[in-house]
Amino acid sequence: xxxxxxxxxxxxxNVFGLQYLVRKLVSSLLILFLCCxxxxxxxxxxxxxxxxxxxxxxxxxxxxDALPKSKGIAIMxxxxxxxxxxxxxxxxxxxxxxxxxxxxxxHVYSFSSIxxxxxxxxxxxxxxxxxxxxxxxxxxxxNIHDGxxxxxxxxxxxIAKVTNASGQIMFDETLPKTIQIWxxxxxxxxxxxxxxxxxxxxxxxxxxxxxxxxxxxxxxSFGSRKFGSKG
Length: 231
Known about the structure:
Blueprint: H1 5-35, E1 41-46, E2 57-61, E3 74-75, E4 77-79, E5 82-84, E6 87-91, E7 94-97, E8 106-110, E9 117-122, E10 130-132, E11 136-142, E12 149-155, E13 158-162, E14 168-171, E15 178-182, E16 193-197, E17 199-201, E18 204-208, E19 221-222, E20 225-226
Parallel strand pairs: 1-18, 3-7, 6-12
Antiparallel strand pairs: 1-14, 2-13, 2-15, 4-5, 7-10, 8-9, 8-11, 11-12, 15-16, 17-18, 19-20
C-alpha cells in the first residue's frame, strides 16, 4: 500500500520526533542515575527494650571508590547551658569551633586522649577552633556547669551519621551486613563502639544495641579525672 507523499512526510517526521524524545528521555535518566543516588535507605537503632536510641553514631567503612569531601570548620555551640549538638561527627583533620551563644561564660574542657584541651572562661565566638587530628571519641564538659556534656566523634575514612529522636538515619550508600554503633550509654567509659548485624523488617533496616543504665554522680568525671582538676 502506497501512501500519498504528504502523508509519508508526516509519518517520517513523527518517527524522527519520537526518536528525538526517546533520546532526550534516556539522556535525562542517565544523568539522574549518575548524579543522584539510586535510593536512600532508612536505618533505625533501638535498645534492648525496643525503644529508639537518639544520638547514636552509626558508621561503616567508606568504599574505595568514594572520594573524601573537604569540610570546613564544624560548630559545637553552647546554648541554654548545653552543647549543641550533643553529638557532633567530624572527619580526622577537621577543625571544630566552640562558640558560646549564652549570655553567661563557659569553661570548656576535654581530657579525652584524642584531643585534651581547655578554653577558659569566655563568651562569644572569638576563640580559635580546635584541630581534631586523631580518630576516636572526645568527651566535652564545662567546668562551671556540670550538666553540660557533649561528644565529638572523629571519623577516619568512614561513613558516619547521628540518629534523630526517632532513632533513625537516612543513608544514600548501600548498607553493609554489619555496622559500627557508638552511644554514650553503651559503656560507663562512654567511648565503646560495638559491631552489630543489620536486620531487615518490612524493608526497613534495624539494629539493636544493649545500653547500660548510668547513675548520675554529683560531680562528673572522665576516667579518673574530674573536669577542672589539675591532677
